[in-house]
Amino acid sequence: MKSEACAACNYLQRECTADCPLAPYFPPDRPQQFQNAHRLFGVSNILNILEQLDPSQKMDAMRSIVFQADIRKRYPVHGCLGIICQLQVRIRQFQQQLDEVNAQLSIYR
Q1: How far apart are CA 58 and CA 70, in angstroms?
Q2: I need a surface site. Which of 1, 16, 24, 41 has the fewest CB within 10 A?
């Protein structure tokens, strides 16, 4: 019995072999994730990245690639940087609120 081709091989319309380097990271039920990664990085760049890494680093690297590609799809102008900047603004706002609360508390001590 033959298993289903990974999302990468399905998209590229090629046979998915047992040693397909992309199959562990792009299961058949996640075609959009592969398309996003392919659009942002390209298959050859993804394969080059994987070749340069130790096996223990590959899963984290691919999670990062998929995350960055998915974010770029959702937020095409600023991508991950836009989210980082938004979070930094929120941190500054919460820090300011915390400072104000601590100042009010110091009055009652």
Answers
A1: 18
A2: 1
Tokens read off for 89: 């603004």
pLDDT exceeds cutoff 90 at 22:
yes
pLDDT of residue 109: 81
The answer to whether the CB of 27 falls within 8 A of the CB of 6 is yes
Rounded to an integer, what distance in angstroms lies between the CA atom of residue 63 and that of residue 55? 14
Q: Look up tokens 């770029």; give the residue.
A: 72
Q: Comparing C-alpha atoms, which of 74, 5, 4, 9 is closest to residue 36?
A: 74
79: left (phi over 0), alpha (psi -120 to 50) or beta: left
User: What is the rounded CA–CA span in Å between residue 6 and residue 27?
Assistant: 5
Q: Are 46 and 87 in contact (CB under 8 A)?
A: no
